[in-house]
Design a protein that fits this description.
- The chain is an alpha/beta fold and 147 residues long.
- It is built from five helices and five strands.
- It has a five-stranded parallel β-sheet, sandwiched between helices.
- Helix 2 runs parallel beside helix 5 and helix 3 packs parallel to helix 4.
- The longest helix is centred in the first third of the chain and has 15 residues.
- The radius of gyration is 14 Å and the shape is globular.
- It starts with a strand and ends in a 5-residue tail after the last helix.
- The structure holds 1,3,4-trihydroxy-5-OXO-cyclohexanecarboxylic acid.
- 1,3,4-trihydroxy-5-OXO-cyclohexanecarboxylic acid binds next to loops.
- The site of 1,3,4-trihydroxy-5-OXO-cyclohexanecarboxylic acid (DQA) has 10 residues, from loops.
Length: 147
């Protein structure tokens, strides 16, 4: 089972950016968590991070026919990008949206998620653990354990 984890702008700044909101763990801690999860769950996990909307669209298109599931934190593009929403719809790969922070309890402009409209589940406010939860959810979904 092949899962692609996509992170949007400023996620590479984890540990440095607003630790009161996003925590003290770094982006390399996140990469380590993904590697550990891949090993523990016997999954192939690739990750991609970009600060550029078009690069994220390109990566979603590249996933077509290659990956079984997508975990995506579009970061700020969550709240603005119809292009990312359309790309997720175009490939129709089961996708789970992750947000490290609890976007619901933040500014009103964070309450709208375009990408989320193409995702079968959203996990928010669980810190980096949210990525593990998203991967486990996709594994169960793709394995036919949940409908
Ligand atoms: C985020 C929440 C977004 O509103 C914000 O722009 C981010 C990160 C999160 O993971 O909590 O960059 O997606």
């Amino acid at each position: 089972m092949k899962i692609l984890v996509i992170n949007g702008p400023n996620i590479n700044m984890l540990g440095i950016r607003e630790p009161g909101i996003y925590g003290k763990s770094s982006f390399s801690d996140l990469l380590k968590l993904l590697e550990e999860t891949a090993q523990a769950e016997n999954l192939e996990i690739e990750q991609f991070q970009s600060n550029h909307e078009g690069a994220i669209v390109d990566e979603i298109q590249r996933a077509y026919g290659v990956f079984d599931g997508i975990v995506i934190n579009p970061a700020a593009y969550t709240h603005t990008s119809v292009a990312i929403l359309d790309a997720l719809k175009a490939v129709s790969i089961p996708a789970v949206e992750v947000h490290i922070s609890d976007v619901d309890s933040r500014e009103s402009f964070r309450q709208i998620s375009y990408a989320g409209l193409a995702c079968c589940k959203t996990i928010k406010g669980h810190g980096l653990e949210g990525y593990r939860e998203a991967i486990l959810y996709l594994k169960a979904l793709l394995g036919g354990k949940i409908a």
